[in-house]
């Protein structure tokens, strides 16, 4: 890394980048309210304003806030990423933290430790792959012992790391498993494959994992994400406890995966009376992911679940809603929040769709704090 920390400016004053920061100060900056700080190679960066620009999404940075991410940064980022660091530099970690040999003791391994760990990559094997549609696959990963808890709370994501056989580049993306079976030690991921088109470049991760042979080694880390569902309407959003009597779920494409995770948790708990409205947008019938599961959820939980599909390019025989998720559908099916209704919007999809939804809901009285983006 280049020297981004000149101690004295042209006027002879101590520059902000020469501040000495303690580990306690770093750990106290884990949210948008306090500032999002990370440490890399002994330097501290305030990346609060960079969150919307992060290619991997803001959830990854928020989850890493207040920690040392040196290893992950240099493993996963190019030289171009390193060049932007000086703009966010605010100081250095005190030498007592950097040099102390006792700051990173080995963690004891006990039988009850979950397989998934936030600070270390765990190897898994690509066990199966199934074609769900022309551009979507179901990948089954197997790695953890069938007696060991996987360790992924409902609503959280995992980081998946895979080495490109062509470039040797380590590729990392966040995904939400639709299922994690403790009995079989398996994790199921639904992944939309992005190939080269006239308007879009291929997806590095999706095409690499699609071409990976059965038996390939991959790596997982987590959990990451700001939302966690603990059941019966109880949620944790970046450390803030809240309760919802009704979820308005709005998704498009592979954005359905966190919704399925939450719907399954509610359906499997006889005491969970949380109501759910799901608006799910896709291009055509074949693109509707996990439709059988969604149909089953709605059929079994008729009093609680309502699922609405809308297609932008449906066949002539499609009897459901037509068009993208936009103002007309949102005002007709969602409308303004119910006073005292304890409602929460869960949103996951392409940036353009999310921006449209947030704009329409805001004009209809929904507050930003009522909307959770995955």
From TrEMBL:
List of residues binding FAD: 173, 175, 190, 192, 204-205, 257
Obligatory cofactor(s): FAD
Matching PANTHER family: NADH-CYTOCHROME B5 REDUCTASE (PTHR19370), NITRATE REDUCTASE [NADPH] (PTHR19370:SF211)
Major place of residence: mitochondrion
InterPro entries: CBR-like, Cbr1-like_FAD-bd_dom, Cyt_B5-like_heme/steroid-bd, Cyt_B5-like_heme/steroid_sf, FAD-bd_FR_type, Flavoprot_Pyr_Nucl_cyt_Rdtase, FNR_nucleotide-bd, OxRdtase_FAD/NAD-bd
Keywords noted in UniProt: FAD, Flavoprotein, Heme, Iron, Membrane, Metal-binding, NAD, Oxidoreductase
Keyword match Zinc-finger: no
GO cellular component: endoplasmic reticulum; mitochondrial outer membrane
GO molecular function: metal ion binding; oxidoreductase activity
Localization: Mitochondrion outer membrane
Family: Belongs to the flavoprotein pyridine nucleotide cytochrome reductase family.
Protein name, UniProt field: Cytochrome-b5 reductase
Membrane topology of this protein: Single-pass membrane protein
Provenance organism: Fusarium oxysporum Fo47
Recorded superkingdom: Eukaryota
